Predict the structure of Nucleolar protein,Nop52-domain-containing protein.
Amino acid sequence: MAAQERSMPFIKNLASSDRKIRTSALTSLHTFLSARQIAATLTPLDSLKLWKGLFYALWMCDRAIPQQTLCAELADLIYVLPREAVVSWLRGFWATMSREWTGIDVLRMEKFLLLVRRVVGAGFRWMKVSKNGGSGNVQQGKKAKANKSDDNGDGWDAGKVDDILNLLEEWPFAIEEEVSRPETEGAASNQDSAVLSGTTIPVGLKLHVLDIWVDEAEKVGLLEDGDGEARKILQRISALVDALEKGTTSPAVRIRSKESLADERLPGNKTGETANEDAEMADTGDGGSWDGFED
């Protein structure tokens, strides 16, 4: 642990009030995570420390365009990491956002809402298997965002799908207010549990993810007709939201979960056009009775 900390001297600089120092620290972080032999040995505590620094890097970032750019860059860090480090990295993100959420003031909340949206979207893209053979790299992530039509020709990595959906179940779609991870074998899993135990998941964070998950699923092609794999993934996500609606003790989360599942873009729900047509037919009717012709 001590050696790992000495190899990350840029952590404090991520929260610097000097933009140039923050930018340099972000470059150092990118280089650090690109080193497979280092990134693969990141502990849950390391991920928490890094995300704490990244949280304050965004906190100190002013103006809309730089904020949008930084959110995208932070979300796409999963494409730099080796496959085996992504879950722990994203778990560190959700833990950090859960711990810091209630301390975000109204003037800064918008950029953190955007960060959560970008991370959810990046996670959905990460589940895909590129038809060009790419998987889990920066080029794949950028290409998926630049050309949405490419998503329709790609498949889905079953292992990555399980990882992302498990994270959703553990964090924003968790029924319990506190993190409650299933007991698993292995020292790494036990370490995760010890570091993250007692973390409360704010209602506001859950509500935001419920608001955006259909949007991000649509962008990555999960709502496309004719993709059987995507339909199964969508059903699994919907099942998580349905379980949250039925099990939560928060009225706000229950209502928002129900509204999320009623989104007209989801399979089986009426589109707005169909609903409007039905409403117009109902408005012009008089209960099905006929009183004859008017004089």
